[in-house]
Amino acid sequence: MAIADSVDQVTQSVIHNRLVMICREMGIAMMKTSYSTIFNEGLDFSCVIFNRDGDMIAQAEFCPAQLGAILFTVRWAIDEYGLENFEPDDVLIHNDPYRGGCHMPEHTIIKPVYYEDELFGFVANIGHVAEIGGMAPGSFAATATEVYQEGLRLPLVKIMRRGEYVQDIWKIILANHRTPRHTWGDFHAMIGSLHIAERRLHELLDQYGVPVINQACTALMDHAERWMREEIRQIPNGEYSFEDCVEDDGVTNDPTWIRVTVVVRDDEIIADFSESDPQARGIVNATFGVTASATYNALFHVTDNDIPHNSGCYRPIKIIAPPGTVMNVQHPAPSVGGNTETHPRIVDIILGALSQAIPERVAAAEGGTSCNLLFGGHHPETDQYYVVYSFEGGGWGARHYKDGNNVVVVPNGNCRNTPVEIFETRYPWLTHSYALVPDSAGPGEFRGGLGARRLLEVVDPAEITISAVFERMKVHPWGLLGGGDATTSAILVKKKGDDRFRTFSEVYGTVSSAKFANCVVEAGDQILIQSPGGGGYGAPSSRDPQMVLYDVEQGFISEDTAEDVYRVAVERVGNQYAANEPETARLRAE
Question: Count of alpha carbons within 13 Å of 385, Cβ hemisphere only?
């Protein structure tokens, strides 16, 4: 009998769910104790448990953009430090994008877990720290040309040694962040969650013992690998290619193309990005951690949701991303936008490639941008400096059986947008409106999801410094199998006294209308943010007329769109709408 088979399946399942619940409890603790909105409202973090070999044995359902990267980061930490150099109650931090990281704002904090004086494994979390210095408040330096402009870059260092603060490291970190109080609070939320996870692991180890837990985790990883291989076998063998672009890099207005060939060979998948463009001058470059995370993320969308997400399920997936391309950025090129803008494009092109093999499993293109809005300044009531990182949900692509979701953060996020109440109670903004955008979804037999529009005004006497990183302003999110494209995104400004909204390029002379840094808005100025919709699936003329009628009633589409695009005649009868069936039949017969 193999060692992994000596733990029965019921016990394996109990241990698996206990481990996942520990990760979830870590996340809840971070949400409830952190200082920044990106944590407690946006939930831009992930929580993971590793064994002593660096294998991921459990994770919670938080931010998929980070889960491939943290796997590489922890393994790199083990290789660099050596297992013999960790000590009980050590805590280490790292945000180096060239050593497994996603981008500079994502900080990984790791704690080794000892049990009965022996190293059992590691607990770790990774989260988006709202402010890490650099050339722009919020550390999304949209016009950066090198990593040094993006903020404070930390190699793997101990911030706690045997339970004691390493004061010199803390001083360096806090001295380089614009909002050190929030950094201190968020880091302690992350560290506190690791302490909770360690305590829960000790309880689990007390109950079952190290040999049983290790055997169960080995069995669970092997089980996840077998299950993933079986899922891959259901995809026809072949080579499937697709391409799309990020529209500009903030430094030039030139597109950067990313290309993938997905090779399916029996029970393995290779994602080959070799034909992608060289790394960009600006911030849209993806680290290898981002490319890996996006590849795993895309494939998790087309495989069984119940597969345990541990290191085992990654084994059948191979990634080729040559160094120096936009898919594997090399020092010192910047990469802050790669995680938020290039990651969703990678997901889309992998799904686009697989639509040639398994169209019933994939979706049309989703909005494809996080609509990153960064702002900072001195609060008019407290004179305290604040920085906020906010993102906006967009429409998701339709599937072969269902409409896309409305206003959901891009697939790499699994995060939440910032509520109106947070904008207005904590920061000097007035929200004039926040609503779905009619006719923003790509039409189809199943339509895409709708985007959102948010209108903000700066409240007197504030002055706010704004940066932004947007995509999908030029290239529409595409539809599949006859489905239509969705609308694009926008960020516009209307200065006090102006009679219309204009692009930031028009007003401030920025190279890009979508990616800019350090534009100052003042009391009375207004900002209009619009997120894109998702692509449609199937021919619009095949959509059930009753579903078209419902969309008109809900304000999702206009009467003109119903008739001109969906070929459904809708007329108002009193205070309600009704479908004109004879006219609809005539329109669809044309």
Answer: 13
Q: Residue 528: which residues within 8 A CB-CB, separation 6 or more? A: 453, 454, 455, 456, 490, 491, 492, 493, 494, 501
Cis omega (within 30 of 0) for bond into 582:
no
pLDDT (tens digit per residue) in 111-125: 999 999 999 999 999
Query: Which residues have a Cβ under 8 Å from the Cβ of 282 and sit 6 or more positions away?
Result: 142, 143, 144, 145, 248, 249, 250, 251, 252, 334, 337, 515
13-33: per-residue pLDDT in tens? 999 999 999 999 999 999 999
Quote the CA–CA distance of 443 and 448 in Å, as a whole number.
Answer: 7
Domain locations in the chain as residue ranges: 3-224, 363-539, 544-589
- Strand intervals (E) in 13-151: 45-51, 56-59, 91-94, 106-115, 118-128
CA atoms within 13 A on the CB side of 466: 33
Which residue in 100, 533, 141, 44 sits closest to 337, CA to CA?
A: 141
CA distance 340 to 216: 35
pLDDT (tens digit per residue) in 359-393: 999 999 999 999 999 999 998 888 889 999 899 99
Q: Tell me which residue of 566, 533, 538 sits closest to 550, measured CA to CA.
A: 566
Using alpha carbons, list the distances in angstroms from residue 132 to 107, 200, 220, 333, 464: 10, 31, 38, 18, 18
To 10 degrees, the CA torsion angle through 443, 449, 453, 454? 180
**CA 577 to each of CA 307, 437, 440, 549, 555: distance values in angstroms, whole numbers, following the listed order:** 45, 20, 21, 7, 11
CA–CA distance, 108 with 95 (Å, rounded to integer): 6
**In degrees, to the nearest 5, what angle opens at C-alpha 503 toward C-alphas 498 and 509?**
95
Report the amino acid identity of residue 22: I
Tell me which amino acid residue 306 is: D
Rounded (5°) CA angle 359-394-527 = 155
Q: CA 299, CA 320: separation in Å to the nearest integer?
A: 15
Helix axes 288-301 and 343-354, enclosed angle (nearest 10): 40
The one-character DSSP state at 151 is -
pTM: 0.94
CA distances from 188 to 20, 37, 201, 537 (A): 22, 15, 20, 45
Question: What string of DSSP letters covers 339-362?
Answer: IIIIHHHHHHHHHHHHTTT-TTT-
Residue found by looking up tokens 């009531």 in the block? 381
User: Residue 525 and residue 465: Cα distance in Å, rounded?
Assistant: 12
The 10s digit of each residue's pLDDT in 274-306 is 999 999 999 999 999 999 999 999 999 999 999
Tell me how far apart the alpha carbons of residues 426 and 464 are, in angstroms, rounded to a whole number.
Answer: 13
Q: Edge to edge, what strands does the sheet with 372-378 contain?
A: 385-390, 372-378, 463-469, 515-522
Q: Widest CA span of the chain, in angstroms?
A: 80
Tell me which H or E stretch contains 505. helix 504-508
Among residues 81, 152, 153, the alpha carbon closest in space to that of 122 is found at 81
Q: Report DSSP letters for 96-133, one per residue.
A: -TTTT-SSTTEEEEEEEEEETTEEEEEEEEEEE-S---
From 102, 128, 104, select the one nearest 290 (Cα to Cα).
102
Rounded to the nearest angstrom, the gap between the alpha carbon of residue 535 and the centroid of all alpha carbons in its chain is: 19
Please state, in angstroms and rounded to a whole number, the distance separating the CA atoms of residues 153 and 170. Answer: 13
